[in-house]
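Budget justification note: compute hours in this period were largely spent on complex prediction jobs such as the one shown. Inputs:
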Amino acid sequence: IISSLGETLRAGETVITGWSSLPEPLVAETMARAGYDAVTLDMQHGFHTMESVHRGIAAIRLAGKPAIVRVPVGDFAATSRALDFGAAAVIAPMINSYEDARKFADFMKLAPVGSRSWGPHRAMAIAGGSDPDAYLATANRQTLALAMIESREGVAELEAILGVAGIDGVFVGPSDLSIALSDGAALDPTGERVMMVTGEIAERVRDSGKIAGIFCSNVGHAGTAMDLGYRLIALGSDASILRAGSEALLEKIGR
Ligand code: 3PY
Ligand code: MG
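Corresponding output:
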């Protein structure tokens, strides 16, 4: 009903998502039209607000792609709103315990899995349908709750987090994970230690039958992550692409 993102990932296909931090729907739509399989609107560290998220989702959908939203830490009410506005998946940062995962799932899933409140009028409209019964019957499977694993606690509790019925998969945050694993000594998202833990997480997610996603800092990192079994790959943010493109162009003309 909303998109085939869930089915695509469950079938084991790879989804490359662009990462949008600039709160302008046209930017997200441009990334979607450029060929990304999906675009993620970032409310945690990016500048997106609920306003730019609801407009951004519509713009990404206009380009025929599914939209993903990353909410701020602990803002579980925003997860339900993102779904109401038509998000195909929501990424919640810093899910460090079974309780965090339960709360996230509770806001993401309609009964009997959770207690998400009813109101997906916009989601149904932009999906081209208006059959509430169909939405009610399929939403829990169609929309994905992805728990970010990016702390020592999150890694330690991974089994319990994956055991929560409404959690569809995990999304690894290698930057925060590197800071956590080094006790604050280093930001090294592609370092040996983080990559080892990244591999262990992939194995445990595979055993659970759920979805593994990760934020990648470059193409090499993305390739390694895919080899490890990650299927939802975030690669390239609008701000960094704009900056790198600008710098490359200016360098060519000697500036
Ligand atoms: C991290 O690497 O910590 C992230 O949250 C990626 O966005
Ligand atoms: Mg993080």
